[in-house]
Amino acid sequence: MSSEFGKILKVSVFGQSHGAAVGVNIDGLPAGEAIDLEELQRFLDRRRPGRNPLSTARSEADTPEILSGLERGRTCGAPLCAVIRNGDQHSQDYSELADKPRPGHADYTAWVKWKGHADMRGGGHFSGRLTAPLCVAGGIARQILARRGIHIGAHLDSVGMVCDEHFPLYPTPELFEAVAAKPFPVLDDVSGAQMQEAIREAKMALDSVGGVVECSAIGLPAGLGDPMFGGVENRLAAALFGIPAVKGVEFGAGFSAAARRGSENNDPFVVENGQIRTQTNHAGGALGGITTGMPLVLRAAFKPTSSIAREQQTVSLSARDNTRLQIHGRHDPCVAHRAVPVVEAVTAVVLLDLLLEGNHGTF
Amino acid sequence: MSSEFGKILKVSVFGQSHGAAVGVNIDGLPAGEAIDLEELQRFLDRRRPGRNPLSTARSEADTPEILSGLERGRTCGAPLCAVIRNGDQHSQDYSELADKPRPGHADYTAWVKWKGHADMRGGGHFSGRLTAPLCVAGGIARQILARRGIHIGAHLDSVGMVCDEHFPLYPTPELFEAVAAKPFPVLDDVSGAQMQEAIREAKMALDSVGGVVECSAIGLPAGLGDPMFGGVENRLAAALFGIPAVKGVEFGAGFSAAARRGSENNDPFVVENGQIRTQTNHAGGALGGITTGMPLVLRAAFKPTSSIAREQQTVSLSARDNTRLQIHGRHDPCVAHRAVPVVEAVTAVVLLDLLLEGNHGTF
Amino acid sequence: MSSEFGKILKVSVFGQSHGAAVGVNIDGLPAGEAIDLEELQRFLDRRRPGRNPLSTARSEADTPEILSGLERGRTCGAPLCAVIRNGDQHSQDYSELADKPRPGHADYTAWVKWKGHADMRGGGHFSGRLTAPLCVAGGIARQILARRGIHIGAHLDSVGMVCDEHFPLYPTPELFEAVAAKPFPVLDDVSGAQMQEAIREAKMALDSVGGVVECSAIGLPAGLGDPMFGGVENRLAAALFGIPAVKGVEFGAGFSAAARRGSENNDPFVVENGQIRTQTNHAGGALGGITTGMPLVLRAAFKPTSSIAREQQTVSLSARDNTRLQIHGRHDPCVAHRAVPVVEAVTAVVLLDLLLEGNHGTF
Amino acid sequence: MSSEFGKILKVSVFGQSHGAAVGVNIDGLPAGEAIDLEELQRFLDRRRPGRNPLSTARSEADTPEILSGLERGRTCGAPLCAVIRNGDQHSQDYSELADKPRPGHADYTAWVKWKGHADMRGGGHFSGRLTAPLCVAGGIARQILARRGIHIGAHLDSVGMVCDEHFPLYPTPELFEAVAAKPFPVLDDVSGAQMQEAIREAKMALDSVGGVVECSAIGLPAGLGDPMFGGVENRLAAALFGIPAVKGVEFGAGFSAAARRGSENNDPFVVENGQIRTQTNHAGGALGGITTGMPLVLRAAFKPTSSIAREQQTVSLSARDNTRLQIHGRHDPCVAHRAVPVVEAVTAVVLLDLLLEGNHGTF
Q1: Against a cut of 0.90, is the pTM above it?
Q2: By the 8 A CB rule, do A127 and A134 touch?
Q3: For chain B, does the N or the C end have fewer beta carbons within 10 angstroms?
């Protein structure tokens, strides 16, 4: 535990924003799986910065070099390590920050934990840049899952006060692909336009705005996950809180379930075409931590980008006194839309891990 | 992983609702810690059923027998195993349920996972009864933490649509104690009366209602937790989703942060009395997964009790056909208020685990 | 980690020699497995003390009470907790020892680690008594494995300088049963008689003697275990060193392989009856940490019982000065013969854990 | 688990012998530790091939590139990933081997596990080449330990039938350095000359020979390690069996303890200069899995190199029939002398991990 997650499939992320490289080591991938590197690159491109005026101006190719674990295009059972070199860095932008922790960032907590030894240029190991190697792992997991009929999709559920629709009861792979293909990943493009406007307004106001990502997985068998602390919700939550800026995770109706009555929230079981399903899916595909076979539905709340261009109140660590801080550099006014593939990636890794572990309920 | 959580301090919960006993094995407790068994019992009594008309009629003494790990009133370094015998069971109430999964319960997923071999009488291993041994572990952890100035409190943040106040910026041990001493654990008793009315109404309507529990920990040092997947949020979330009926977990401003701007959500750093603090605490005491030294604040959403007295739609597993189900037996119309000490318990265990691991940021 | 081992199947041992009880919690057992409690008791009886003049005079019924996880004779997916009450204790025998650590025991290291708070009466949590709950776990695992054609047997390979034969290239279930049925578990009864004589001589000399246990498992599929640190050898070794008094573990030819040439030690592959086997089995059934499908063969070295009746040199912890110690109480002059089923038990648990994890080499 | 070990300090090894690179990701290093890269290189050079006629002719520079975790020469709290590019590969040497598993190698078990998808050129992920990144991790751990007065040394205890002396009761850092500086790492150079002669003879005979490595750690505090399965012996054994070709691990007197009497094997406690020590150290520095404060002593048995130049019996996997195999390519006639720093490296990592975890016996 730390910069690693998974049980059978272990994903270890390394690198700092302004170091030589970021990367990921994936231990436990099944052998013989073809990995389509072009498809992987297309997935990585979905989170890549510098593509539109709503994102940071930092431009990175984000092309991973795979150092091990892949032989003639197929996984070979050995750990797969992928490295993405860091290129376009402006470390001088961060010189002032060594002494003035940015509000909302890990600068202060890293300074306390590592007694001033942390490399916090550009957020260091806490940077959103670390989501690039996460997407390498997730992009590989997605390909392996898709081959088994398990598909994962996500969209921007809200930005600020503007909400998208939720996923329908039975999302399809085509719906997931359609959303993923959009430059701005929402179900309802009218809402999407309003969200983009909200982001632009925040940017103009030298400010930022938060958002929620909704993610769904279809094609999962019933029976995955273990009771109590080994459930699909426990494992997904533990991993999702590893994405920078996530402050809340919920499944199915989530927090809104707390406002409901049981007769509204319970999902009645029905037999449809010989299959046991539920008429609604407020459970979000998991009961008792174990998958029901209905679509898995989760939401992750992203706080507004901590880096804002306005002057802010902070402290000088050396003087141990109050001071003011103006953050320069390039920053997204909203991270949530770029986080959409990241949530998919983390979900894909956790689900593949659960599938590899198998439903060992019986032997 | 499964019915166990923790890294240095491992807490393993066992038992079924209608089996011989439920219990907990706690491995990794520091030695030499005095455990006040009367104080422990008072803590357990806070979640005990059968105390007021809002709770299930099942009456259990819930007095743990400690089989190991405690010698002359102090922990001795060996694992501490505590057992609570099950007494007042009405297993015949559940006979119909073997074939008809109750909506919202784990009956169906357990049936799939264990191919019909699960002991699901009274919810089996998924029962809220398993929170009793969790509270044994948490009650012990609380005593050890309190001795180091770390205090944990919780209250019912909402029931249905009725909301309590949130905790103030700096809760005190006295506030925690005052709430814990109330028969209905809220900050604002007017809201509390409305919540109780909402529960009663749901009960009268043969229905149930959900709620949210807010929990806070004060006295934590800054620097606890590891980056990315080993953070205090990751570990707490993974554990909290192990409490039956939890469908969402958030820290600090949580989901509401997603609706905010950065300038509102960022917590400015200030020096107060020579100490670095934040003026607000929307981060809920953690930045980058590492504690800031501010109060830890989290919220867990509990869905409405799945067992309701109304007839419900379900399926017959044997006939693989639609059918109707009427749940008899005794059930809480709301679990959230009894869950208040359970959330405290799980939080206490995770925090003690983190403290025992130490802030090994430097050596 | 600590008093727990296993990955999918987690076995947690608790209790102290002179506490209320010893026991085990087993999390992750597959559901639907019939457990024959009489067969389990027969297995436990193989390590039970007090059966012959070579063993400690302490007499315990060692009958476990199963508190959870077993419903109508079958595992039900929930953790199985079994408790063995401690009965026949003579704690007064140990009063002097609180201040004088016994050479060869964990008294001193426990005193350092737990700053004098350890319950070391009778060895406390380090006592050989803790092998009783280990045998409960192992006895259950054996039954589940046997149903899949996997059988585990062990014998006393040596006592002091007296050696038994090694297992043949292909041991049979019948051979395992025949050895297990003997009052003194050896292959060659002539050697067995000499070993017993060696134990008696040690006892007469107020001394003790060590021994080696050889254990084998047959019927394992090829392909179990992961490379490098997740191999079958790594996991078995980690678990076997948890048995009190074990100071060495080897697989196949083990240490003797180091004295050989490659041409002698390599096991040539051959096709026999359409199956790929090796002509010899110096590898002990594992190459690269992964099972070959040949019998698994391991050996564990047990040091001589640390408790001897002779006066010994030690220190007074309170006076921090040299002193003499005479250990009274009841002790085995040799633990190795009673350890035979314990080695089988630990091996069975690790192998069942590996099997449950599955050969996830491909998906 | 798999190609990773450690609890607080996680070391993940990746790469295949003939892939692009081998490397290691180290998660959990304390921050602020200066790493002397020249000293690290000198340590790596001790296992480097191609230095003398006793080793494989493969020549690799083995200079790691550190991609993350090191900032201005000091660890920064983020994971440290180091990569060693593979250069001098002769993959064509291995073309025949895809169908003919080499006796003693993991070729067959990898083929079964990964259904023919393993990259086994040069042994793939099972190659001794993977010990280079292990030595990077160990070399870093050694520097951090040495700064705290903990020193680790090792020597070749035997080759074939030729034995070196054992370490003295109290080895010194100077002794460790002196052995490490020798081209052939033994205590007694006369024995060393005989060992080299034995290796040469084996090579001349187109054969190989095994050996034993003895390793010691001095300066450890008493009280490290947890009881039963979390002990220093359990963790070291689990890690040491991850070094290719290790078939046995023992501590202190190890297997020879089994041949002794208790009165000989027990280490009497004595007070010397106010410190509690033992007069002998047959326990090898651990009692009950917890360090005594005496030097830690362990031995690892290495089987003879499986690759020998003689023709050997094997099978054709495609024809499922018997065949003959002649291994070409470059191979060490003995791996044990090059394994000396590898055993030190793995020991260093495990001990640093234990130290970072801290002696949390009390709080």
Answers
A1: yes
A2: no
A3: C
Instruction: Using CB atoms, pick whichever of A16, A114, A117 lies closest to residue D68.
Output: A16
- A128: exposed, middle or buried (C-beta count within 10 Å: 0-12, 13-18, 19+)? buried
Residue A18 per-residue DSSP state: T
Partner residue facing D31 (CB), from A2, A71, A118: A118
Q: Which of D28, D31, D363 sits opposite B33 (nearest CB)?
A: D363
How many Å apart are CA D358 and CA D226, to the nearest integer? 11
Q: Report the b/e string of D313-333 with b at 16+ CB within 10 A.
A: bbbbbeeeeeeebebebbbbb
Instruction: Tell me if residue C194 falls in helix, strand or coil.
Output: helix
Give A34's strand partners. A74
- B119-122 contacts, C-beta under 8 A, 24 or more apart: B119/B16, B119/B18, B119/B19, B119/C71, B119/C76, B119/C77, B119/C78, B120/B94, B121/B16, B121/B17, B121/B18, B121/B89, B121/B91, B121/B94, B122/B16, B122/B17, B122/B18, B122/B89, B122/B91, B122/B93, B122/B94, B122/B329
Q: Report the length, in residues, of chain C.
A: 363
d(CA A349, CA A326): 38
Instruction: State residue D359's pLDDT score.
Output: 67
The residue type of C73 is: G
User: What is d(CA D172, CA B14) in angstroms, rounded to the nearest whole number?
Assistant: 50
Q: Could you give the residue ranges of the DSSP H alpha helices within chain B?
A: 37-45, 107-113, 131-146, 173-181, 189-204, 232-240, 262-265, 336-357
Question: Which tens digit of pLDDT belongs to each residue from B140-198?
Answer: 999 999 999 999 999 999 999 999 999 999 999 999 999 999 999 999 999 999 999 99
Instruction: Determine the Cα–Cα distance for residues A224 and A214; give it in Å rounded to an integer.
Output: 21
One DSSP character per residue, C126-158 reads GSGGGHHHHHHHHHHHHHHHHTTT-EEEEEEEE
Interfacial B residues in 152-191 facing A (CB < 8 Å): 158, 160-161
Question: CA separation (Å) from B106 to B127, B308, B311, C354, D140?
Answer: 9, 15, 18, 27, 49
Q: Answer yes or no: are the C-beta atoms of D114 and A77 closer than 8 Å.
A: yes
Selected residues 14-73 of chain C with any CB under 8 Å from a CB in chain D: none
The residue behind tokens 């106001």 is: A205
Tokens of B104: 């919202």
Name chain A contacts of B13, Cβ cutoff 8 Å: 228
| Residue-level pLDDT at C97 | 79
Cα angle value A342/A345/A346 (rounded, 5°): 90
CB C109 within 8 A of CB D293: no
Show Cβ contacts of residue C91 under 8 Å, excluding neighbours closer than 6 positions.
Answer: C18, C121, C122
Cβ pair D224, D232 in contact under 8 A: yes
Phi, psi of A147 (to 5 degrees): -60, -25
- A274 class by beta-carbon count within 10 Å (0-12 exposed, 13-18 middle, 19+ buried): exposed
Locate the domains of chain A by residue range. Answer: 4-357
Phi, psi of D274 (to 5 degrees): 80, 0
Which ipTM did the prediction report?
0.96
Question: If you measure CA to CA, which chain B residue comes closest to C6?
Answer: B1
pLDDT tens digits in sequence order for chain C, 363 residues long? 589 999 999 999 999 999 999 999 999 999 999 999 999 999 999 997 655 556 555 555 789 999 999 999 999 999 999 999 998 666 565 677 789 999 999 999 999 999 999 998 989 999 999 999 999 999 999 999 999 999 999 999 999 999 999 999 999 999 999 999 999 999 999 999 999 999 999 999 999 999 999 999 999 999 999 999 999 999 999 999 999 999 999 999 999 999 999 999 999 999 999 999 999 999 999 999 999 999 999 999 999 999 999 999 999 999 999 999 999 877 889 999 999 999 999 999 999 999 998 766 888
The C-alpha atoms of residue C217 and residue C170 are separated, in whole angstroms, by 10
- Structure token pair of residue A139: 């992009």
CATH T-level fold of A4-357: Chorismate synthase, AroC fold (3.60.150)
